[in-house]
Amino acid sequence: MKMSSSSIFLKLRRYNKKNYKQLLFCTFFSIFLVTSFVCVLYSPVVQAGFPEGGDSLKMIMMIFALAVLGCLIFNIYAAGLFFRTKSRETGVFLALGMSKKRLKKELYKELCLSLGKGIISGIVLGVVAAVGILWILLHTFLTDILERRMFSAAGLGISLFFAAVTVLILFFMAARYMRRTNLMDILNEEKKNEPLQLVKKGYGIAGGIFLVVGLLFGYAGPQLTANLLKFQMPAIWNAVYLVAAVGIYMLFVFFIVYHKRGKQPQKYYHNLISNSMMKFQGRQTVRNMCILAFLTGAALYAGSYIPDKLVMFRTMADTPVDFNLIYRQTEQEIQKEDIEVMADEYGVTITDYQEVLFAELQTSGVERDWTDDGKLIEDYYETYAYGEFISASVYEQYTGTKVEVEPGTFAQIILPEQTENFWEKYTDMDLVTNQETGAQLNLKFAKTVEDRMFYRANVHRYILNDSDFQTITAQMTEQRQMKQIFFDVEESENVYDFAIELRKEYVRRAGKDMAVLNAYNEAEEDRAEAAGEPYHYRMTEPMDPEDPYLYHDWKFNPEIQPIQMKTYLHESGIMILTFLYVSCICLAAIGIIAYTRSVTIGVQNQKMFDDLRKLGAKNTYIMRCIKNQLRKIFVLPTAIGLFLILSFLMIIYIGNDKRIQSTEWMSFGCTVGFAVIICIYQLIVYRMSLKKLREILKL
Question: For 106-128, what is the mean pLDDT?
Fold first, then answer.
């Protein structure tokens, strides 16, 4: 029966359907993940839950870029395997006289069929998955979001763009694959080995040193030069992290290539064949291990944000008071009677109501900045900022804590476990000035006092000796007195509605002097005006109580726990789902790449294992050879990827404030737990790979 070339290619596709299914699945899976991810991320529903230009959204975008990179690597790896399996088929057709033009046309046709099916199904099912996720969000974390539109053109546009990039990359690989001219190279491509040169023990030691040096100095180097040499390292210094990447590659080469008889020669000879097999396939094995290590680290890094958010939520739940409002005494703001009337309307019971006054004084300080050539400049100002002061006796009256403050000294109120940072030191302040009377008082730093209730994030607060406080605040008017109101409420179903209405009323009554951003500094504004320079930290538009973005960057934003908890739950809930999704993307890619690489080992070495049987090797010995290779493929990338991220997190924790706080220990412990889950996942994939190899090799 006469057959056309098209029917031959059709039969070959059916015969090698496993290879086509693998490419189709990998394409579908990556498109599905990216589509569902971007449709959720760019949904107006989700975007409404984030402050415009906020750090949380930037963080998610960074993690999103990581996920897209992982999916691209995943597709490139799958395409590389597909072309390797096609090599013998292509070589035979060339040997039989078929033109490259004809083969290229058929290859492109096959790619179009596989990619087309994968892209269309991936986008459709990705959209369906996004709808399901958004429905869950709307009925859990985003119940109060007014926006109800689920999709935006940006989400589908990015999905289509990613699909287009995937198609271009795969067709570029196909074109490069077809440009080869050596027929024997094409025929033997599937069986091609890429051996590594032998290395000595020092190679592995050097790799370990490079890994540690790149990781440690990449992050700690700029901090050390800033603190010790008062010099800012240029952005190019981030290239030091590449030293760690080189170290990882060297370590993988070392573990694959270096084997010595040592004190246990029997073990060396038992593993001689399996070790030699890995050496002959060394380059492709090392490349795969590097990809697996990168994806493992990415999965853990994305997952590490989840415990951070959960620990922060737990800390927020432990706020010492439910409601905390502050404003200047001269403001026509909400008073105790107004709060009580409003509470009665909502059936809310107020408990532990207190009011305390702080004196607002000018403080000295040091302004630090970097010059264009990276040098640190420090300018001292007698009127650097405004601080809020309270006497030791009044502080004891409200908190029950006695603080001993000697005359001529001050204690600074901080958060628990807080330490000073590079830009502001506790000792910077040595002079306070009463702006109304011109009186000044020289002071020295004595101690810090940890107090979450009296701490204010955007203004420094201090405790003075009673006599010093009376001296410096003499003849002070209400214009420079700050009133802080704090109280608790009993549990009630109307507490949240009461909190929302109270905050709205608080905003309605706020005067123009309160319409300032978090970074507003009155003393800095005075200096800018004196220099004839513009100052940009005053709000230019009237404050709208209905505007959710107002409360993210308002200096006088009231701290109301019921609202903060729900708002944080909105944002962190979305972020937790997003980070978890990225981890799942990376873990899925890890599982498929590791599984495919494991199966490839069995297929490529099947003839060698058959020869070993003929030479008398038992199945137990062959299984030992296989397990020895699989352990390296699974254990080494997992161990190095997890070690890299856990070490990096520890360096960040220590670099933040020179110690690890209790909340950071909790978060780190949860991250270690997630690393254990990744190890269990890898063990499951290892077992599945081993089972598949048993079937292939009939063991």
Answer: 84
Q: What is the CA radius of gyration of the chain?
A: 33
CB 375 within 8 Å of CB 417: no
pTM of the entire predicted model: 0.78
Within this chain, do residues 353 and 459 fall inside the same structural domain, yes or no? yes
Relative to beta strand 409-414, strand 350-370 is: unpaired
Regarding whether 565 and 555 lie in a shared domain, the answer is: no
**Are 378 and 525 found together in one domain?**
yes
Do 65 and 181 lie in one domain? The reply is yes
Q: Which helix H or strand E contains 387, and what residues bound it?
A: strand 376-391
70: tokens are: 């992982």
Residues with Cβ within 8 Å of residue 224, at least 6 apart in sequence: none
Same domain assignment for residues 546 and 611: no
Which structure tokens are listed for 547? 């505007």
279 φ, ψ to 5°?
-65, -45
- Classify residue 221: in a domain, yes or no: no
Higher-confidence residue of 542 and 69: namely: 542
Residue 229 maps to a domain: no
Write down the pLDDT at residue 295. Answer: 85
Decide if pLDDT at 181 tops 50.
no
Residue 362's domain comprises 323-559
What is d(CA 300, CA 285) in angstroms, rounded to the nearest whole number? 22
Residue 308 counted as domain residue: yes
The set of residues, in sequence order, having a beta carbon less than 8 Å from that of 470 and lying 6+ positions away, is 391
Q: How many domains does the chain have?
A: 3
Calpha distance 333→513 (Å, rounded):
12
Residue ending a domain, choose from 518, 534, 559: 559
- The token duo for 407 is 């005359």
Nearest Cα to Cα of residue 45 among 157, 133, 149 = 149
Same domain (yes/no): 309, 394: no
Shared domain for 676 and 595, answered yes or no, is yes
Last residue of a domain, one of 192, 215, 242: 192
Whether residue 32 contacts residue 125, with contact meaning beta carbons closer than 8 Å, is answered with: yes
- Predicted confidence (pLDDT) per residue in 643-685, tens digit: 989 988 888 888 777 778 888 888 899 999 999 999 999 999 9
Q: Tell me the β-bridge partners of 351.
A: 488
Q: Which of 217, 194, 158, 3 is nearest to 84 (CA)?
A: 194
Pull the structure tokens for residue 413.
Answer: 């109120």
Please write down the long-range contacts of 15-24, taking CB distance under 8 Å and 24 or more positions apart.
16/85, 16/89, 19/81, 19/82, 19/85, 19/86, 20/82, 20/110, 20/114, 22/78, 22/81, 22/82, 22/596, 23/78, 23/79, 23/82, 23/114, 23/118, 24/114, 24/117, 24/118
Give the residue from 227, 228, 281 showing the smallest Cα distance to 608.
281
Do both 591 and 658 map to the same domain? yes
Strand pairing class (409-414; 444-450): parallel
647/300 Cα distance (integer angstroms): 12
Helices then strands, counting H and E runs in the chain, come out as: 21, 10
Distance of CA 5 to the CA centre of its chain: 52
In terms of DSSP H, where are the helices of 555-661? 561-604, 606-614, 619-657
The verdict on residue 272 lying in a domain is yes
